[in-house]
Amino acid sequence: xxxxxxxxxxxxxxxxxxxxxxxxxxxxxxxxxxxxxxxxxxxxxxxxxxxxxxxxxxxxxxxxxxxxxxxxxxxxxxxxxxxxxxxxxxxxxxxxxxxxxxxxxxxxxxxxxxxxxxxxxxxxxxxxxxxxxxxxxxxxxxxxxxxxxxxxxxxxxxxxxxxxxxxxxxxxxxxxxxxxxxxxxxxxxxxxxxxxxxxxxxxxxxxxxxxxxxxxxxxxxxxxxxxxxxxxxxxxxxxxxxxxxxxxxxxxxxxxxxxxxxxxxxxxxxx
Amino acid sequence: xxxxxxxxxxxxxxxxxxxxxxxxxxxxxxxxxxxxxxxxxxxxxxxxxxxxxxxxxxxxxxxxxxxxxxxxxxxxxx
Lengths: 271, 78
Fold this sequence. Notes:
The complex is a heterodimer of chains A (271) and B (78).
Chain A: E1 16-18, E2 23-28, H1 46-61, E3 67-71, E4 86-89, H2 95-105, E5 110-116, H3 117-123, H4 125-134, E6 139-144, H5 174-177, H6 183-187, E7 195-200, H7 204-222, E8 228-233, H8 237-240, H9 244-258, E9 262-266, H10 267-270
Parallel strand pairs in A: 3-4, 3-5, 5-6, 6-8, 7-8
Antiparallel strand pairs in A: 1-2, 7-9
Chain B: E1 2-10, H1 20-24, E2 30-32, E3 44-46, H2 57-61, E4 67-75
Antiparallel strand pairs in B: 1-4, 2-3
């Protein structure tokens, strides 16, 4: 059992409790919005980190009661079992369309989609582009692990050139399968999106940056600024056939060459 | 004057033994158990003989939010 009044998230909110002579201050503990269950994600999977950051950010913004998530089809399909907020499940790739409906009917709610690369960049590309082009006031969290995890490691649109997967056993060949799809750069061609950023979760520094961006994306929505998308380069140690640490290094050293990190568009800052 | 220390707790039932906390801890405070637990997982554990500096690197990187860190300050009477 956790103490009810203790702080949360990266030691920002803290409380002190006094014993006879010692003062104890909780610097870090599980966010309260994260349910006390063992997730089905593999060891070292970036989804766990993103669920934790999501729980921390929504808690810090004080919108746990207003938040509605739209879960994808993919590894994160069971997100509603892990984060204690309202969730709904969309048909494969249709999360932005469902989120559009939810946000238009409930403009006071904080509506976001949580999608993988197969869901967002493959089957759901049409919904993604049109929701962004309409400038829907929603937040999109895009987990890009460059592979299909749930179906056991086939090529995704975001798979790197030369990367071996079950459907590209000799490495991805652009002659037959094209090039890695850069969703942020693609959406940057549109007029309506207000925040497009690519980040990762492979070092504590990057985790903190991702949390700050996630918070900014939700604030965009709460201030009715418009559409925001945060792309997170996430490790998939199991289907990259690496140890967790190798997968984390692989992102830092290789994946970021194809998918450069940074804020691609931030209209709020420009204004 | 006060004497402070940091207490690191591994919530073993959430830990999957990925070992990232061990890699990122600058002090070597954490290690992976040799013996798998009842779930077959070699979970992370805390060395009692190494001091934690409270940098939160392990808790920040942990994908399963399985680490809790408490700062304990004991006033020293002079």
